Amino acid sequence: FESSGRTALHFACGNAAHECMKLLIAAGADVNTLDEYGQSPLLLACQQSDATSVRMLLAAGADITVRDKDGCTLLHIVCDYNDEDSARALLDAGIDKDATDADGGTPLLHAVRTRDIECVRLLLRAGANVNMADHQENTPLHFACVIKLPRCVRALLYAGACESARNAQGETPLHLATAVNCNECVDALLKVGADVCASDTAGVTPLLRACRNGSAAILSELMSGTIKEDMKFTLLRAACEAGQVECVKLLLRAGTRVPLAPFNSTAPLYLACMNGHEACARALLLAGANIDEGFDKDRSALHVACANRHLACVRLLLAAGAQTDGPRQLKGVPLHIACSAGLEASVRALLAAGADIEARTNDNETPLHVAC
User: Fold this and answer.
1) 265, 294 Cβ separation under 8 angstroms
2) What is the DSSP letter of 45?
3) Could you give the CA distance from residue 344 to residue 347 in angstroms, rounded to a whole number?
4) Which residues of the chain form CATH 1.25.40.20?
């Protein structure tokens, strides 16, 4: 024994010294002695991805139930190292294919996480539980989607993976595939009926996530089915707020109606101008959005563009004919707001568009008063 508790067989395994191993085993070396770290010769062989040593030790009666400090079984370890040959040997020896580590992960989940499609297929053929989730309720399918493995996604689905499984955040695999812009994964999930309107714990659907991420191609695919008009409008608002102009254009082409009545509390044009997304605002105006629609009866898109210092939006709205002197809010018309914020360029643009320099706030102040 060495000071760490390792035997000659440990060292032979760690160095893939197969002839030495044969001699030691033939001489009666204990194949199950653990070093001070709780590691057996077989565990070391698995960490070395040495299938020859693994088979020799298994034939000599090595214990297949040992685990490392993280609770990983030998099968977890060889899956982490993409060692299909050792995995096959362990499965043939009867190792538990669905054992969980300290985080609740199965060998199948480890194989997916390390992008090892061959080990994934091997485990599936061996009957591994395709829907076992870790402590965060993530299944192998969740992981395959989030790391963009369409071949793995298809293999898992073919083996019976649940496309509607939810993790601790209420996310389905489709949420995650959408989040990482994996078109092939999205396509595979949609083919088995994944729900595009499933909400996570924050109320976000895959459709909404695609809009916020600017994934126009994925959004188009998600919208291939029937989408209700109110849902389209919700998506349009989200795309405008996030400044995702390609998604805005896609939704408009899909027939999403832009409300013509002013004072809609969630008007897409208001949201686009509030966040300085001039391209989105332009697309909405071309689609017939009411130039003066706003947050409420006192705040128009022009008000919020001035307040938030978005000169490009101010100029766009003025060029499109926005009312410079209405609606009038507590702090006045857009010219008051621009003067109050010291926005010279916006003030000049408003004056050039005919804004009333004598307009009054509720406190009877003119733009000059608030500028001073």
Assistant:
1) no
2) H
3) 5
4) 130-225, 259-372
Architecture of domain 130-225: Alpha Horseshoe (1.25)
Q: Is the pLDDT of residue 144 over 60?
A: yes
Report strand pairing: 299-300 vs 294-296: antiparallel
DSSP conformational letter for 77: H
Segment 30-42, tens digit of pLDDT? 999 999 888 999 9
- Three-state secondary structure call for residue 330: coil
Average pLDDT of 139-144? 98
Q: What is the DSSP string of 278-327?
A: HHHHHHHHHTT--TT-EEETTEEHHHHHHHTT-HHHHHHHHHTT--TT-S
256: Cβ–Cβ under 8 A, 6 or more apart, which residues? Answer: 229, 232, 233, 235, 236
Structure tokens at 252: 């408009």
Q: For residue 233, what are the CA distances in angstroms to 116, 148, 255, 266, 332?
A: 41, 30, 10, 10, 30
The candidate with the shortest Cα–Cα distance to 22, out of 44, 48, 55, is 55
How far, CA to CA in Å, does 223 sit from each of 105, 113, 156? 34, 30, 24
Query: CA angle 346-317-300, nearest 5°?
Result: 90
Q: In sequence order, what DSSP letters do the residues of 218-280 get, joined into one string?
A: HHHHHTTS---HHHHHHHHHHHHHHT-HHHHHHHHHTTPPPP-SS--TT-HHHHHHHTT-HHH
Determine phi and psi for 329, rounding to 5 degrees.
-100, 180
| Options 1.25.40.10, 3.40.50.300, 1.25.40.20, 3.40.50.2000; CATH of 259-372 | 1.25.40.20
Closest CA to 225 of 205, 184, 254: 254
**Amino acid of residue 243:** G
pLDDT in tens, 310-331: 999 999 999 999 888 765 555 6
Query: Interior CA angle at 30 toward 28 and 36, to 5°?
Result: 150
